[in-house]
C-alpha cells in the first residue's frame, strides 16, 4: 500500500523532467496520479506511467476547468488526498521570436499556461479540500528568470512571474501547512526544450561553464525534487540544479 499521493502535471514522454520526478516519487512510496495533454500524447505518457503501476490517467489542458474538476472528483470518489503536486508546464507560441517582437497575446497566453496555471490548479485543489496539510507544491523554473539567456526570449520573464508566484503562494498557504517551491534545472534536451532556438548550443555552453564540466541528469533533478517536496523546512524557495553553470563567469581564451 503506497502511503502518499502525487498529482503530476506535465509528463510528455520518457525524456520529460516530470517523468524523472514521477519515477523518483514512485521509488519513494508515492502513488502517481498523472495527467496528459491530449490523445496524441497519451501513449507516450503511458510508457512512463505504466511501469509505475498507474491505471488512471487524466486529460488536462490549462484553462479546461471541467478536466480539472474531473481530476478532483476522481480524488474525492476514491478517498485519495494529495501530498504532492508537481506543476511542470511550459508553453510559449512565439518562443523563437526576439522578446521585443513578441505579441501581447502570446506573452499573456504563456503566462497563463506556464505560470498562473499553478495558482489555478492549487486554488481548485484547496477549495475541494483534496490537498493534505503538510502537502507540497513544486514547479520547475530556469535561470532565464534572472539572466537574459540567448534563445530563451519571452520565457525568461514568464519564469520570473512563476518564481514570484512561488513566493506569494508559499506566503499565503503556509497557514494551511502547504509549502510551495521551485527547482531550477540546467538545460536538458526535452520536447519543450527542442523548440528553443540554439538549445543544443545552450547545453554545450552549460557543460563548459560548469566547474564540474557536466549538466544535470533527470535523476539529479528528480532527487532534488523529492527532497524539496518532502523536507518540511523548504518553503518559497527556488533551488538550482545546474552544476554551478550559472554562478560563474568564464573569460574568453585570449584573456591574460
Ligand atoms: N528542459 C529544460 O532544459 C528545462 C530547464 C529548466 C526548466 N524546465 C521546465 O521544466 C518543465 C517541464 O518541461 P520539460 O523540459 O521536461 O519539457 P516537456 O515537453 O517534457 O514538458 C512540458 C509539458 O508541458 C505540458 N504543456 C504544455 N502546454 C500545456 C497546456 N496548455 N496545458 C497543459 N500542459 C501543457 C506538455 O504537455 C508537457 O507535458 C517546464 O516548466 C520547463 O520550462 C525545463
Brief account:
The chain has helices at residues 17-27, 42-49, 65-77, 104-127, 155-173, 199-209, 218-230; strands at 4-9, 30-36, 58-59, 82-87, 131-140, 179-185, 238-241. By secondary structure, the chain is an alpha/beta fold.
Defining key terms:
7 helices, Rossmann fold, 256 residues, alpha/beta
Q: What's the name of the CATH homologous superfamily?
A: NAD(P)-binding Rossmann-like Domain
As for the number of domains, it is 1
Helix and strand run: EHEHEHEHEHEHHE
Report on the biggest sheet. 7 strands, parallel
Number of helices: 7
Radius of gyration, Cα only, in angstroms? 18 Å
Structure description:
The protein is of the alpha/beta class and 256 residues long. It has a single domain, classed as Rossmann fold, CATH 3.40.50.720. 39% of the residues lie in helices and 16% in strands. It is built from 7 helices and 7 strands. It has helices at residues 17-27, 42-49, 65-77, 104-127, 155-173, 199-209, 218-230; strands at residues 4-9, 30-36, 58-59, 82-87, 131-140, 179-185, 238-241. The protein has a 7-stranded parallel sheet with strand order 3-2-1-4-5-6-7, with helices on both faces. α1 packs across α7 (218-230) and α4 runs parallel beside α5 (155-173). The longest helix is centred in the middle third of the chain and has 24 residues, at 104-127. The radius of gyration is 18 Å and the shape is globular. The termini are far apart. 42% of the residues are buried. Nicotinamide-adenine-dinucleotide binds at residues 10-12, 16-18, 37, 60-62, 88-91, 113, 140, 142, 185, 187-188, 190-193.
Amino acid at each position: 500500500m503506497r502511503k502518499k499521493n502525487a498529482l503530476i502535471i506535465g509528463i510528455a514522454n520518457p525524456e520529460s523532467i516530470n517523468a524523472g520526478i514521477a519515477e523518483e516519487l514512485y521509488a519513494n512510496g508515492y502513488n502517481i496520479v498523472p495527467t496528459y495533454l491530449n490523445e496524441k500524447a497519451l501513449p507516450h505518457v503511458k510508457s512512463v506511467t505504466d511501469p509505475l503501476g498507474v491505471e488512471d490517467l487524466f486529460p488536462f489542458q490549462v484553462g479546461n476547468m471541467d478536466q480539472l474538476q474531473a481530476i478532483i472528483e476522481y480524488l474525492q470518489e476514491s478517498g485519495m488526498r494529495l501530498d504532492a503536486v508537481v506543476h511542470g508546464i511550459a508553453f510559449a507560441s512565439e518562443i523563437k521570436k526576439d522578446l521585443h517582437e513578441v505579441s501581447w497575446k502570446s506573452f499573456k497566453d504563456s503566462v497563463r499556461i506556464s505560470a498562473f496555471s499553478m495558482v489555478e490548479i492549487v486554488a481548485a485543489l484547496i477549495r475541494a479540500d483534496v490537498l493534505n496539510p503538510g502537502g507540497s507544491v513544486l514547479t520547475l523554473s530556469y535561470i532565464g528568470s534572472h539572466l537574459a539567456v540567448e534563445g530563451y526570449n519571452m520565457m525568461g520573464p514568464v519564469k520570473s512571474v512563476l518564481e514570484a508566484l512561488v513566493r506569494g503562494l508559499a506566503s499565503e498557504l503556509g497557514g494551511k501547512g502547504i509549502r510551495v517551491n521551485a527547482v531550477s534545472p540546467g538545460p536538458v534536451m526535452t520536447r519543450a526544450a527542442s523548440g528553443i532556438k540554439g538549445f543544443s548550443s545552450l547545453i554545450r555552453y552549460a557543460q563548459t561553464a560548469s566547474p564540474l564540466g557536466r549538466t544535470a541528469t533527470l535523476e539529479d533533478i528528480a532527487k532534488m525534487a523529492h527532497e524539496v517536496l518532502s523536507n518540511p523546512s523548504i518553503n518559497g524557495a527556488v533551488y538550482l540544479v545546474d552544476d554551478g553553470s550559472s554562478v560563474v563567469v568564464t573569460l574568453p581564451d585570449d584573456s591574460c
